[in-house]
Amino acid sequence: AQKITQTQPGMFVQEKEAVTLDCTYDTSDQSYGLFWYKQPSSGEMIFLIYQGSYDEQNATEGRYSLNFQKARKSANLVISASQLGDSAMYFCAMRGSSSNTGKLIFGQGTTLQVKP
Amino acid sequence: DAEITQSPRHKITETGRQVTLACHQTWNHNNMFWYRQDLGHGLRLIHYSYGVQDTNKGEVSDGYSVSRSNTEDLPLTLESAASSQTSVYFCASSLAGGPSEQFFGPGTRLTVL
Fold first, then answer.
1. Of the candidates A76, A88, A84, A63, which has an alpha carbon nearest to the alpha carbon of residue A36?
2. Which of A35, A43, A109 is nearest residue B107 as measured by Cβ atoms?
3. Given its phi and psi angles, is residue B85 left (phi above 0), alpha (psi -120 to 50 degrees) or beta?
4. What is the pLDDT of residue A18?
5. Which chain A residues have a beta carbon less than 8 Å from that of B95?
6. How many CB atoms sit inside 10 A of residue A67's CB?
7. How many angstroms separate the CA atoms of B47 and B34, rounded?
């Protein structure tokens, strides 16, 4: 069975510093995709970044990067130069090849608070 | 601009009543999904559809049903609302496969008294 684990219920970071949010996954699929979403206090789900299992380079989107370590089955989100607006809940999610029409499995989320 | 909308945004109902939550997307996506979000559980998949007339059960489908009569809409029905169904409900849509992200609606907060 596929599973996503986020072991940090809450994190604090100082403004302008970098922070890493952990995500480990379990799957027997050879082809899969990993996603990170941000959920601010307003409640909407905002897509941040995607990493495919066959992508050789770590994905980057602006201040977001995904530290993908396939052998360790980890897909950590790195936010550089944290901003106050980064305070939110962050979800890691996975889509396996057996569900290539898009079905996602989500982790429980990590709440990030950025301190001024 | 293409979008995905949900209605109502907030709903209070009583135990035993039938409730339907609407989801409408203008992305022309074949795939649509319903999730519920509860503290400590993240988002859990209720039902999903790969296209018109196609529906499938997700992880937590008991007490819920969906129907897909067109590409744009996937209404979620609670046949007989229970207090355990108090939650925030998200609808999402996506293209098939690959790196296609899921686009989420704004969510519906449902309270069952």
1. A76
2. A43
3. alpha
4. 97
5. 102
6. 16
7. 5
What's the first-to-final CA gap in chain B, in angstroms? 37
Residue of A nearest to B88 (CA): A43
Chain B residues close to A101, C-beta within 8 Å: 30-31, 50, 96-97
Q: What is the pLDDT along chain B (113 residues), one digit of tens a residue?
A: 889 999 999 999 999 999 999 999 999 999 999 999 998 778 999 999 999 999 999 989 999 999 999 999 999 999 999 999 999 999 999 987 656 788 999 999 999 99
Average pLDDT, chain A: 92
Query: What is the residue whose two structure tokens read 């007490």?
Result: B63
Contact (CB<8Å) B96/A100: yes
3-state helix, strand, coil in chain B (%, to 5): 5, 50, 45
